[in-house]
């Protein structure tokens, strides 16, 4: 085959499924970025239809003359068997539990059966993207947290993102015990809304995290205090994990990290004892870090 090689990248979030066609050096082809509602709590048919719709829209931009599709990289939340391409989630995307996603993608029109497809945890994808072209450059021992509908974590050692035999993150934090539940209950979407409700002593019906971010930007005290508390909880829970692994750089991604300015102070205060830590920041691109990482995964770079 001759021509310019490109890669289809997909980020399966709990709220939206995003896809884009990227060049080998990580440049998004103009017009190829697509986002669709994920229906992660929907039926099997709704979820798969959303994937298919998103992929087909992006694939239009890899079928132009002189362009060859070199592979597909998919960032997916866990639990998931990343080697086999099989979701194992009991919460979001529960209705595609056990579905062979590699086979499903391979059956979509326009995808050749010999196209390599690589799956990667969404937090690992974020970290890979940031090690390559983002805020983790120059920090071989780095970590990334993804905050959204769920909570993800990944870390690298000597520039290599660390994985389990099934391809998931070597250290998982979403189920870490915290108070009367798990950490995800307190710092992901439902956690922020619960904290805000407790601070306000009021219902959060009809309110989303994006609203809290807007209100915090406008100086609303209860919203600001909510993010302060999330930063404090994260620092308390991550302190020893980062210390033991000599993490030099900690990055936050995911939709909640758009409000990083409001949780930065308490997060940094709580991690002052991690002497190896030289940088705490939001990712360089909340929208594209996971797509860049998915590209690196299918290129088999800095990932094991």
What does this protein structure show overall?
With 304 residues, the chain is of the alpha/beta class. It folds into two domains: 4-121 and 294-298, Nucleotidyltransferase, domain 5 (2-Layer Sandwich), CATH 3.30.420.40; 135-282, ATPase, nucleotide binding domain (Nucleotidyltransferase, domain 5, 2-Layer Sandwich), CATH 3.30.420. The chain is built from nine helices and 14 strands. The protein has helices at residues 44-59, 101-106, 122-133, 184-187, 189-200, 209-217, 221-244, 260-270, 289-298, and strands at 4-12, 16-23, 34-37, 67-76, 80-81, 86-87, 117-121, 142-147, 151-157, 160-161, 177-178, 181-182, 249-253, 279-282. Strands 3-2-1-4-7 form a five-stranded mixed sheet, sandwiched between helices. The chain has a five-stranded mixed sheet with strand order 10-9-8-13-14, sandwiched between helices. A two-stranded antiparallel ribbon has the order 5-6. Strand 11 (177-178) and strand 12 form a beta hairpin. Helix 3 crosses helix 9 and helix 6 (209-217) crosses helix 7. The protein starts with a strand and ends in a 6-residue tail after the last helix.
């Amino acid at each position: 085959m001759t021509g310019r090689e490109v890669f289809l990248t997909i980020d399966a979030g709990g709220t939206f499924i995003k896809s884009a066609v990227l060049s080998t050096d990580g440049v998004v082809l103009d017009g190829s970025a697509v986002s669709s509602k994920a229906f992660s709590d929907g039926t099997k048919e709704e979820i798969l239809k959303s994937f298919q719709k998103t992929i087909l829209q992006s694939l239009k931009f890899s079928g132009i003359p002189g362009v060859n599709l070199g592979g597909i990289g998919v960032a997916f939340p866990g639990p998931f068997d990343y080697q086999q391409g099989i979701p194992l989630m009991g919460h979001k995307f529960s209705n595609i539990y056990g579905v062979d996603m590699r086979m499903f993608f391979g059956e979509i029109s326009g995808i050749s059966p010999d196209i390599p497809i690589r799956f990667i945890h969404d937090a690992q994808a974020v970290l890979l993207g940031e090690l390559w072209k983002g805020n983790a450059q120059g920090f071989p021992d780095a970590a990334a947290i993804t905050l959204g509908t769920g909570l993800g974590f990944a870390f690298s050692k000597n520039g290599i993102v660390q994985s389990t035999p099934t391809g998931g993150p070597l250290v998982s934090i979403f189920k870490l015990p915290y108070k009367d539940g798990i950490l995800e209950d307190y710092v992901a979407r439902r956690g922020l809304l619960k904290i805000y409700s407790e601070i306000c002593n009021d219902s959060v019906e009809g309110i989303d995290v994006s609203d809290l971010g807007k209100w915090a930007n406008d100086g609303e005290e209860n919203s600001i205090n909510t993010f302060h508390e999330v930063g404090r909880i994260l620092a308390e829970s991550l302190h020893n994990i980062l210390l033991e692994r000599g993490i030099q750089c900690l990055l936050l991604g995911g939709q909640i990290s758009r409000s990083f300015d409001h949780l930065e102070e308490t997060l940094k205060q709580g991690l002052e004892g991690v002497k190896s830590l030289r940088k705490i920041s939001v990712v360089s691109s909340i929208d594209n870090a996971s797509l860049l990482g998915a590209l690196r995964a299918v290129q088999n770079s800095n990932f094991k």
